[in-house]
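Why does this matter for the project? Reviewers at the last site visit asked to see concrete outputs rather than summary tables. In response, this paragraph embeds two records directly. Each consists of the residue sequence and, immediately after it, the corresponding structure tokens. Nothing has been edited or filtered.
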Amino acid sequence: MMQQLFDKRSTLLLLIFCLPLLFLPKINLITVGEQTAGLRIDDFILLLFAIVCFWANFACQKCLSDIEIALLSLVGFSLLSCTLNHLFYAADMLPVKASFLYCFRILEYFLFFYIGVFVFRFCRIETIVAGFFLWNLLLMILQKFQIVGIFSVEGYIANPDDRMLGIASFGSEIGLLLNFIFCFLMYQNATNYESKGIYLPNELKRFISIIYPYFLLLLFVFLVVLSGARMAIFALFASFIFYLKDVVSWKRPSTYILPLGALIGGMLLMVYTLYNASGIVSRSKGLLSFANFDLISVVWDNITLEYDPIGRESVRMGSYDASWWMRIHKWAYALKLYCLHPECWLQGIGPGFAMAALDGGFLRILTELGIIGCVLYGRLFYLIARQTTQLYWMMVAFMLNMVFFDVYLAYKPMSLLFLIAGYAYATNAKPSKNEPLKKLCIEATF
């Protein structure tokens, strides 16, 4: 017979302390070296939460779920990779040193999985996500009018530029958060009002269900463009186009007139916002220049592996696009270091060697944790995506952003993702009415 690890009162007390962390901006209490992620109040609260959860698991001898096993396997392998890195570094086989702190970052974010399970006992996840979205929307509006500043990796900035970040620290982070919320809202049942205690006439429900996804598209196009996150804009339209395959029938023109109109309207709104309310156009003038591709071979041939390239780039920026110029230096440094050390191809160079931001999640996993690390992360992502349709499409947006963004190391997006995954896991583990209590599977999720 399965059993829950905490009673309802204890669970509520833990939620009161932990759930607000999702809504608070990141503020470093102690800066760790040159890292952007120092020690925060979140770290201390989550550490206490982890100790309580570990003690409860040990006391009740709880079985681990498949997601927990995948996560712990990943953390264990990261520790092995980091240990091997230190041995190779001591033997002068590697010029860089990994960080043990990076082994535990994914474990810290995963604690929100359990918070999501706790949420299942008290309220709907739709309420939490809606509140999170409205809170960020309010902050973005206040930031637009410079009433409230932004909480960047350098600290609080009272007078930000045109980018609106909500509780995030940089544009790519709020862009991905908006992608997540868009996919979550897009694939929830927009007409299921009876279960929420809201009763509407059938015609009104039908009208809302028709315009709901297109209204979301226009709203989120506007917000994502204002965030300045270019990859998030692409991921937003890609997610919407994939959604249309379920609602469009090419044999019936009436089914694609409205989606086509929404896409055109979204494009026009995007163009208008790009040129009038964001700084994307000004910083993207050389984005598609072929000179950026010529830069790859030049940097690869000239870059040195004795030190990281940030601030000491081997090729001057000149007329190159700034983002490509910086990324190519980072990517060439990490990939060349990995390729020249075949003894690290399986386990990687080591977690954290690739600077605070490599700006390429897939490349970072490969170079830091090697082929085995890619398999372990792929397993974890698969287990998350298969739980619900919403999480599947959130993971699609996740993967698209991973091309130019170290998503799996971003605190707020990963916290939101694990929170929803934990709630979904608890929902799937809930027994049916005809299932006997002894088969209750909620044990693995508190």
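We now turn to the second protein, recorded in exactly the same manner.
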Amino acid sequence: MDDDTSPVYARVWQMQGGDLDDPGFAETYCAEVVPRLNDLPGLVGLSVLLDRGRKALLGLSFWDSAEAREGSAVVVGRILGALLGLSSAELGGPWVYDVVHSGLRGVLAQPTQLGEADDLLVRVVTLEGGEIAEPSTVTVLTRHLSADVALLPGCVGTLLLRDADRSAVLAASFWSGARAAERAAALSEGSARSIVAATRSSSSEGTYRILVHQPIPGPVS
């Protein structure tokens, strides 16, 4: 990030399986999680993403300091524990990242509530191991997201998170409509394989719909 840009810290968690394909669960999750997160000091943004078909829910919260992020852990853990009991889902994470790049525009520059962004899709790629979190690699990934992916038709935002300790990055791209997201997936398939091979890392990916989104003040890059 630029020297005059305040750092942003992320906490990411995933719920998988159970009743996540139940439309009512999304409403319950957002009603329980979002207001409580907004009450916590230091929160500067959040996103709740759902792939109902794969029964996968991804939560991202963004904080103005590492201390605020850590201070939220107990409260968030209690909320998620209660929701896991209701849904029979399994919890992945939480994982901590630093925000390396955030470029959101259009509707993503404004808060969206449940049902307001149903036409937006988010492609999330997590890369782990090898040299994926090295500064030189992260620079290349940032340039790729901001200069290549962001210019593709239908792209309305890009995001890159880095966890140096765990040697992991999370790259997200936001798309207006399923056709744009599918086209982007096809175009990026070759570059993704090249990155994995060059860095000796492993990758996993998914496509989600936005349930709730509160943007990070930015841009961050």
